[in-house]
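[09:14] KT: can someone run the structure on this one? pasting the chain below
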Amino acid sequence: MATIDEALAIIRRGTEEILIEDELIAKLKEGRPLYVKAGFDPTAPDLHLGHTVLLNKMRQLQELGHEIMFLIGDFTGMIGDPSGKNETRPPLTRAQVQENALTYQKQVFKVLDPKQTNIVFNSQWGDKLSAVDLIKLAATHTVARMLERDDFHKRFTSEQPIAIHEFLYPLLQGYDSVEMQADIELGGTDQKFNLLMGRELQKHYGQKPQVIITLPLLPGLDGIKKMSKSLGNYIGIDESAEQIFGKVMSISDETMWLWFELISFRSIEEIKELRDEVGNGMNPRDVKFLLGEEIVARFHHVEAAKLARENFIAQFQKGRMPDNIKDFKLKVRDNEPLSNIMKLTDLAKSTSEANRLIEQGAVRVNGERVLDRNYQIELNKEIILQVGKLRFAKIILV
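[09:31] RB: done, structure tokens below
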């Protein structure tokens, strides 16, 4: 069993803020397993590496002997979390949310121990809330309090619409903590208002308030914006070993160190030693190899990680093209948009994603980067269309 000081050192690693740390110490001194809550709204079908910042912290708390409650927001997911949004999000249907939730259930155990994890759905109590219950919940806070939230305030002052149902989201997320009697709630820094709502509602319902632990948002492959499927700068934890490894190798050296801190299981001392070695002349690429292998091994296995590294070296450092490039012969209209061609060849899931990839500089034709979404491919001429470092298609347009 870890001492209080040892447990605190593990909990503090990579965290942005602990509110309130003295309360956390008092809870740890009780000597009982604490109820640790982290909520995930299934608004997209797959978990990505950004989600694992929270999942890793949950795993650490799990290993310290605490009770992990992985909350799938199948009820709140139909509202849509307005955090950080400058416009109202379209609500998802129950069917969409349930389909995504099933995927989350399968993927989460790539990080968490299934024997020590409780999967909870907030529809268990959300579906039972009557109109009277919602009115009573809404009565616990004022509109002025809601407008203190940064994203709501910005939208209000810039005269952007705020739908009334969006005010319900933080209230319902906070009410989840009441139903679950959470001791600790984890969340990204963008969730601070919602997490504080949980503390306030627990007080209102006569419970001891939860301790809040916020964690930084993992930057995506671009190293600037937070990892997001909608931005196309993500690594899905269900992707192939080769895809994961190749994407890790594409990040900047500066981003690499932040990823080491937030998602690597290496100790702080090991990471510092690697930094010192790079400072003394070691190639940062070799350190990035270690990060790529660690992440691939976590979601696949050690042998797959080693093979992914070997294939990456063979393909990209020795200039070898993949052996399994798909051939496409497409009959197209005049001036067919490049985004449509990418969609037709499965290099993008949609034309909007294709356009984002083009704008991000991730698309090449015969090895030359293409930044113009109106780029025209010649007819009756074979070309190699490439997206990122891992996706290729051999194409002839007729």
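[09:33] KT: thanks! The two ends are 68 Å apart (CA to CA).
[09:34] RB: yep, looked fine to me
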